[in-house]
Write a structure and sequence with these properties.
The protein is an alpha+beta fold. About 30% of the residues lie in helices and about 25% in strands. It has 3 domains: about 90 residues, Uridine Diphospho-n-acetylenolpyruvylglucosamine Reductase, domain 2 (2-Layer Sandwich); about 120 residues, Uridine Diphospho-n-acetylenolpyruvylglucosamine Reductase, domain 3, CATH 3.30.465.10; about 80 residues, UDP-N-acetylenolpyruvoylglucosamine reductase, C-terminal domain (Uridine Diphospho-n-acetylenolpyruvylglucosamine Reductase, domain 1), CATH 3.90.78.10. It has 9 helices and 19 strands. It has a 5-stranded antiparallel β-sheet with strand order 6-7-13-11-12, with helices on one face. A 4-stranded mixed β-sheet has the order 1-2-5-3. Bound molecules: flavin-adenine dinucleotide.
């Protein structure tokens, strides 16, 4: 199917909301935390799980390329763009409700919103994740983690839709085989529609204090005032990427508008006007120099699209 025909089929599914839900030549810099990168041929933002399923069915039958994203805090779209459809999981799929001591979160719910809900309900266990940017769906996919915790510690299970939109199932956290910044979803391509977090009754004051302490730590150690996608590289076993980069003398190194953060060498920041290619060139220089200096191969955590 040609992209124009696909657009028509998606427009039919979107009905009255089509103008809001479907964006042609979507500037992905506006939808990603790096504030850099090219355009996607189409971007669609389904408003509920049924519409998502219908759209996935149409997309899989079209033969066009497509991929899911959430808040765009761990992806970078190449300057040449993505010749396919980016499916954005956000508004409409972001409902959060309580069941017993668990929170059931629509995958488009932002981590900050989940943190607020946990605090309001006096549920403890989510504090470590409260400052991680992004959606809960992206966090499940990445097994996001911080301050000694990972999503797998609190994920009771998730409702998934297959990438072709034809099947829906509930899996336990264990079935997702969650490891360091990896889950089985990287291979299956299944889409998270809901995540069930297993929390416990806690003391609201203590939860608030812990969240605010961790946020202070984050704000003082990370270059939060510049666009980035967080730590650019995965932590190599036995090392810290930031320390390897700093020891290789790369702190502050600039390519175009991209820079190795002066505050945290594990971050590549967009100092202003960076292109995706500035960022990728800088990443390659870092990989080569760190390898020369230490023999360690740094692997990108940020997912490169296009
Ligand atoms: C300043 C900053 C600090 C950060 N700190 C941390 C940190 O402490 N710890 C950490 O782990 N990460 C951190 N990150 C990275 C990022 O926040 C996480 O990886 C986050 O979980 C990504 O969520 P997202 O919704 O933005 O995902 P996106 O960037 O939109 O997508 C990331 C991947 O997840 C997939 N995906 C997204 N939604 C779904 C879904 N519903 N179903 C299936 N697949 C999906 C996408 O296909 C893509 O491959 C940081 C980023 C920034 C900018």
């Amino acid at each position: 199917m040609k992209i124009d025909e696909l657009k028509k089929a998606l427009t039919d599914l979107a009905g009255d909301a089509a103008a809001e839900i479907i964006v042609e030549d979507a500037p992905m810099a506006e939808y990603t935390s790096f504030r850099a990168g090219g355009k996607a041929r189409l971007m669609v933002s389904p408003r509920d799980a049924e519409q998502l399923k219908d759209m996935l069915r149409v997309l899989s039958e079209s033969g066009c390329r497509y991929m899911i994203f959430g808040n765009g805090s761990n992806i970078l779209v190449k300057d040449s763009g993505y010749d396919g459809v980016m499916v954005r999981i956000g508004k409409g799929l972001d409902n959060i409700r309580r069941e017993g001591e668990n929170l059931i979160c629509g995958s488009g719910a932002l981590m900050s919103a989940v943190a607020r809900a946990a605090l309001e309900e006096s549920l403890t266990g989510f504090e470590f994740a409260s400052g991680i940017p992004g959606s809960i769906g992206g966090a499940v996919f990445m097994n996001a983690g911080a301050y000694g915790g990972e999503l797998r510690d609190i994920l009771a299970g998730a409702r998934l839709i297959s990438k072709d939109g034809k099947n829906e199932r509930y899996v336990t956290g264990r079935e997702l085989d969650m490891g360091y910044r990896h889950t089985i979803l990287h291979e299956t391509g299944d889409v998270v529609v809901e995540a069930e977090l297993k929390l416990r009754k806690g003391d609201q004051k203590e939860i608030k204090e812990e969240m605010s302490q961790l946020m202070k730590r984050r704000n003082s150690k990370q270059p939060v005032n510049f666009p980035s996608a967080g730590s650019f590289f995965k932590r190599p076993e036995g090392y810290f990427a930031g320390k390897l980069i700093q020891d290789a003398g790369l702190k502050g190194l600039v390519v175009g508008g991209a820079q190795v953060s002066e505050l945290h060498s594990g971050f590549i920041i967009n100092k202003g006007g960076a292109t995706a290619s500035d960022i990728l060139q800088l990443a390659e220089i870092i990989q080569a120099r760190v390898y020369d200096e230490s023999g360690v191969r740094l692997e990108m955590e940020v997912r490169i699209i296009g």
